[in-house]
Specification:
heterodimer; A: 213 residues; alpha/beta; 5-stranded parallel sheet; 6 helices; 8 strands; 25% strand; B: 219 residues; mainly alpha; 9 helices; 0% strand
Amino acid sequence: MKLVMENLAVDRGERRIFSGVNVTVQAGTALVVTGPNGAGKSTLLKTIAGFLRPTDGIIRLEGAQEETSLREHCHYLAHDNALKPSLSVRENLSFWQSYLGAGPASIDGIEAALERIGLLHTIDLPAGFLSAGQKRRIAIARLLVSRRTIWLVDEPTAALDAASEKGFAAMALEHVDSGGILVAATHQELGLKNAMRLDMAAHAGGVSDKAAL
Amino acid sequence: MWALFIRELRLASRVGGGALTGLLFYLAVVTVIPFGVGPDLKLLARIGPAVLWIGALLAGLLGLERLFQQDREDGSLVVLLTGQYPLALVVLVKCLAHWLATGLPLVIATPVFGLFMNMSADGIGAVVATLLVGTPAITFIGAVGAAVTVTLARGGLLIAILILPLIIPVLIFGVTAAYGAVEDPAPFLPPFLILCAITLFFSVLGPLAAAFAISQSAE
C-alpha cells in the first residue's frame, strides 16, 4: 500500500496555500511535514483526509481494497481531541471504536490502549475531569482502539509532557513498523528514524488560478 | 450506527445535554397563555390545539443548534466524517436520536398541558397524534438549518429564521388536523395524511441536504 500525492495544490478562498507537492509515502514509512505557522501543514493533512478538495493534482491510495475511499483508511487527529466531556473515557473510546470500526486482527481493547498510555485509572471518569495533557493522551488512544493504516496527526504532542511525548513516538514507530503510514505535521522532533521530510515552506504560494481570473 | 445513536441519547440525557430545555420552554408557553387570555374556558378550549402546537414548535426549535455545533467545536464532526458510513445516514441517526431525546418528551407531556387548556379528550388525542407525526419533520428540517449555520457561533436564532418558512406548512396541517378531530364539518384524515407525507418527505430531503452542507463546511 502506498499514499501518492502528485503535483498537489490547494487554494483557500483566493489564496494559494501550497502547490507542487509530489510525495509518495510507502507503507511502513513516516512523513514529517514541517514548516512555519501558516505554511499549510494542517491544510495538507485535511486535503489527504478528504475534507478539502485539491485545486490541482491528485491524491490516491494504491494497493487498497477497491471500493473503500481514502478517508476510511485514515485516522485524523487534529488540534481538537474529539472527546465528549460528559461521557466517561470508556464511553468515549468505545464509541469511536465501534463507529470507526475496530479494524482487522489483533486489535487492542480499550483497557489495553489506556494501559499503554498510562491512564487506565481514569477509565470511568468523565473526560471533562481530565487535564489538557490527559485529554490529549486519550485522543491518542483513539488511534489504538481502531486499526487504520494511515495516521494523519497534527501537532500530536502539543500539551504532552516529555515522557508522554516519548510514549507517542514509540507508538508511532510501532505503527510504522507494522506497515502503517504516518503523516505528522509538527514542530517538535518526534524522534522517528528514517522518516521522510516535507518542508511546506518550499511549496508555499504559487499563483492561484482564481486570483488570476 | 447503533453506537452513534446510543452516544447521542447519552449526551442528551447527561448534565448540560439540554434534553429538558425544550420541555420546560413548552411548559412555560402553555402555562402563561391562560393567564394572558383570561379564565374563559370555552375560548381556551378553542385555541388549545393552536397553542399546544405553537408551544411545541418553538420548543422544538430551541435545541436544534446543539445538533452539530458541539460536535464541530470539540472536533468530533471531522472524525465522524472519516467513518465508513455515508454522511446522510449519520445525520439521519443524529436526527432520530435528537427527536427521541427532545421531541418525544413534548408529545408525552402534551396530555397534561392539554388539561391546562380545558381541552376535551378527543382534542387532546388529536393534538398528541399530530405532534407525534409532525415534530420529526421539525427536527429533519431543522437539521438543514443547523448544518448550514454550523460554522457560526451562536447560530441558534439564525436557524429558526432560516427554517421557519419550511416549518409553517407543518404547523398549518398539524393544527388543521387537530381541529378536524373536534369540529364537525372539518375533516381530520386528509390534513393528517398530508402531515405524515411532509414528515416522510423531509426525512429523506433533510439528511441529504444537511449532509451536503456539512461536507461543504468541513475544513
